[in-house]
């Protein structure tokens, strides 16, 4: 409902009606509507972080693991598109404390992801310019725009978009042999 109507336009009554529970039951698990919004962010970030850690600590060279991590964040974002959409459209509606918590979780994710880029730079798989943090911001800036234009019934399927995004990202990191 938050993805369709927006957080501010969705009432608690609509939520409990859709869930088939009473307001009392909802408030037993969630102290406020804000708690539901935070849970969407936390659940998505926690799932993606767990997957990133497995990929980053897994087998393969830095480029192979970075490719897998980049594909994973895109695939899980498409798979959980409603949550992803709510994440980017409504985060500003969280309390300041909750916004800080979400930003801290997101920062941990980006730092771990950046570590894969830096590892590839040290190994000579990627050029060292641009800096790893700029490359990661560029990639995630593009990823975060997906909810503004993607439609499941569109010409390109999610898998193809993910593959194109990753190829563009890695091609930019690789540059030419003279760049490394």
UniProtKB/TrEMBL annotation:
This protein is called what? Answer: Helix-turn-helix transcriptional regulator
Q: Does the keyword tRNA-binding apply?
A: no
Q: Membrane spanning segments where?
A: none
One Pfam family, short name? TetR_N
Keywords, alphabetical: DNA-binding, Repressor, Transcription, Transcription regulation
**Where in the numbering of this chain does the HTH tetR-type domain appear?**
1-48
**Cross-referenced InterPro entries:** DNA-bd_HTH_TetR-type_CS, Homeodomain-like_sf, HTH-type_TetR-like_transc_reg, HTH_TetR, KstR2_TetR_C, Tet_transcr_reg_TetR-rel_C_sf
Please list the GO terms describing molecular function: DNA-binding transcription factor activity; transcription cis-regulatory region binding
Chain residues forming the annotated DNA-binding region: 11-30
């Amino acid at each position: 409902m938050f993805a369709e109507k927006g957080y501010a336009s969705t009432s608690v009554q609509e939520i409990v009606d859709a869930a088939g529970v009473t307001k009392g039951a909802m408030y037993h698990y969630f102290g406020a509507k804000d708690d539901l919004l935070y849970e969407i962010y936390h659940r998505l970030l926690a799932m993606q972080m767990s997957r990133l850690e497995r990929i980053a600590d897994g087998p393969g060279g830095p480029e192979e693991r970075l490719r897998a991590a980049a594909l994973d964040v895109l695939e899980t974002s498409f798979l959980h598109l409603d949550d992803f959409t709510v994440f980017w459209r409504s985060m500003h509606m969280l309390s300041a404390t909750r916004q800080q918590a979400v930003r801290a979780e997101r920062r941990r994710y980006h730092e771990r992801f950046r570590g894969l880029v830096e590892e590839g730079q040290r190994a000579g798989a990627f050029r060292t310019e641009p800096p790893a943090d700029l490359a990661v911001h560029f990639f995630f800036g593009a990823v975060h725009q997906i909810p503004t234009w993607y439609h499941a019934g569109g010409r390109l399927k999610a898998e193809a978009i993910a593959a194109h995004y990753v190829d563009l990202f890695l091609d930019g990191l690789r540059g030419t042999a003279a760049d490394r």
